[in-house]
Amino acid sequence: MDAEAIRDVFQAFGSVGIRRMFGGQGIYRDGVMFALESDGALYLKADDETVDRFRDRGSQPFSYRTKDGRTTIMSYWLIPESALDDPEDAADLACAALGAALRSKASGMKKAKKPLSTRRPRKSVSEPAL
């Protein structure tokens, strides 16, 4: 799926940015990736609050095989086929995906390490006397 087709799907959602990544494309709103395109399919970010919406519509999560043969499942779900032809439905799902992406980003920032200035100092090791 090319950039123009992606923008058509999300026309009711508003302006989106598109960047190439890993053989596919990342789709962004205000610098936050909320969707991805891979092999012509669009996937939207989901989390605990939104995943049932996708599951209830028969969607499947994005997955890929690693070099060692394991399957990795991502938190992006296939956009329902009906949303590809319904800009309002696509916009509604994109809003939900952007919310999931923002929540994910916020929780990731909470888990980030404390800055060095707020860490407890290390105990000093005294040097042996000569």
UniProtKB/TrEMBL annotation:
<feature type="compositionally biased region" description="Basic residues">
    <location>
        <begin position="108"/>
        <end position="123"/>
    </location>
</feature>
<dbReference type="InterPro" id="IPR047525">
    <property type="entry name" value="TfoX-like"/>
</dbReference>
<dbReference type="InterPro" id="IPR007076">
    <property type="entry name" value="TfoX_N"/>
</dbReference>
<protein>
    <recommendedName>
        <fullName>TfoX N-terminal domain-containing protein</fullName>
    </recommendedName>
</protein>
<feature type="region of interest" description="Disordered">
    <location>
        <begin position="104"/>
        <end position="130"/>
    </location>
</feature>
<dbReference type="Pfam" id="PF04993">
    <property type="entry name" value="TfoX_N"/>
</dbReference>
<feature type="domain" description="TfoX N-terminal">
    <location>
        <begin position="9"/>
        <end position="101"/>
    </location>
</feature>
